[in-house]
Amino acid sequence: MTDTAPTRAGFVALIGEPNAGKSTLTNRMVGAKVSIVTHKVQTTRARIRGVAMEGASQLIFVDTPGLFKPRRRLDRAMVKAAWGGAADADITVLLVEAHRGMTDGVRAILDGLADLPRGTTVALAINKIDRVEAPRLLALTQALNEAYAFAETFMISAEKGHGVVQLRKWLAQAVPEGPWLYPEDQIADLPMRMIAAEMTREKLTLRLHQELPYQLTVETEAWQERDDGSARIDQVIYVSRDGHKGIVLGHKGETIKSVSQAARADIEEFLGRKVHLFLQVKLRENWLEEAERYSEMGLDFKDGN
């Protein structure tokens, strides 16, 4: 921070289709793993905020669930949360995958942008630019800007970091002047209990692939600080069918052991200290219809109606 530059702070909503790279971009901007990143679509449920500093500006990234056609209560709550995040933000950034181009889903999002509050600043970030040739990229850029009057367009690769610095510098100048909203060294406003649960759910999603994509959730049931500086974390994995318990546990408990080890390593890296992680698997047939489960994920149960 300099003596001459005024402080700025603002919320930046990242929206786009599932798997467009919103979580990867959040983590790249913040410089830490605060948002679940997997190859599965629709893995981000809560509006996870990552806080990044750029000069005298504080950027609070709202990593929304992907926008898609909802089929059930959880889907509807996720989509409502995504548009709510965009409506509440100072700046909205639409991420479009370069190699997928102008899909039906992107067209639906472009239509939805018209419903944002008047005066909302919306920028375009074409992601995964390393996957297409320049002529195709330019044609997509032109088509998207003809469909909506974006304030600015950026060509990026969230995974490799290309163009991310330019986007962050532009955002730093575009957010409103004002005091910082979080301490300078804070990188996320989610409770650590929720971040730890998300890290375990990420490992489950990666390990189980197609078997149980969205039929489970993870909650941190207890968190005990120990005298030696370590933490004991007890988490519950809720599944919606009895047969799913065996899949999560795996042969002789191999799956849950592997998940526990990988999740513990991520949590320890994030906290910078030793963690003792204990996982249980419980059947909760109707968790997708329980308001309490939605609250744990940072979603509004009523939005699923």
Automatic annotation (TrEMBL):
- Binding residue positions for GTP: 16-23, 63-67, 127-130
Q: Where are the annotated segments for G2? A: 42-46
Tell me which PROSITE patterns the record gives: G_ERA, KH_TYPE_2
Membrane association type:
Peripheral membrane protein
Please list where the region (G4) is annotated.
Answer: 127-130
Read off the SUPFAM superfamilies from this record: P-loop containing nucleoside triphosphate hydrolases, Prokaryotic type KH domain (KH-domain type II)
Which portions of the sequence form the region G3? 63-66
Instruction: Write down the Gene3D superfamilies for this protein, in alphabetical order.
Output: 3.30.300.20, P-loop containing nucleotide triphosphate hydrolases
Q: Which GO terms describe its molecular function?
A: GTP binding; GTPase activity; ribosomal small subunit binding; small ribosomal subunit rRNA binding
Region G5: what ranges? 156-158
Entries under Pfam families matching the protein: KH_2, MMR_HSR1
Write out the GO cellular component annotations. Answer: cytosol; plasma membrane
Protein keywords: Cell membrane, Cytoplasm, GTP-binding, Membrane, Nucleotide-binding, Ribosome biogenesis, RNA-binding, rRNA-binding
Listed GO biological process terms:
ribosomal small subunit assembly
Q: Does the keyword Cell division apply?
A: no
Q: Keyword check for Disulfide bond, yes or no.
A: no
Known InterPro entries for this protein?
G_ERA_dom (IPR030388), GTP-bd (IPR006073), GTPase_Era-like (IPR005662), KH_dom-like_a/b (IPR015946), KH_dom_type_2 (IPR004044), KH_sf_prok-type (IPR009019), P-loop_NTPase (IPR027417), Small_GTP-bd (IPR005225)
Ranges where the record places region G1: 16-23
Q: Which domain of life is it from?
A: Bacteria
Every copy of the Era-type G domain together lies at 8-177
Localization annotation: Cytoplasm; Cell membrane
Relate the protein's function as given in its record.
An essential GTPase that binds both GDP and GTP, with rapid nucleotide exchange. Plays a role in 16S rRNA processing and 30S ribosomal subunit biogenesis and possibly also in cell cycle regulation and energy metabolism.
Q: Which family does it belong to?
A: Belongs to the TRAFAC class TrmE-Era-EngA-EngB-Septin-like GTPase superfamily. Era GTPase family.
Q: Subunit info?
A: Monomer.
Task: State the name under which the record lists this protein.
Answer: GTPase Era
Record lineage: Bacteria, Pseudomonadati, Pseudomonadota, Alphaproteobacteria, Rhodobacterales
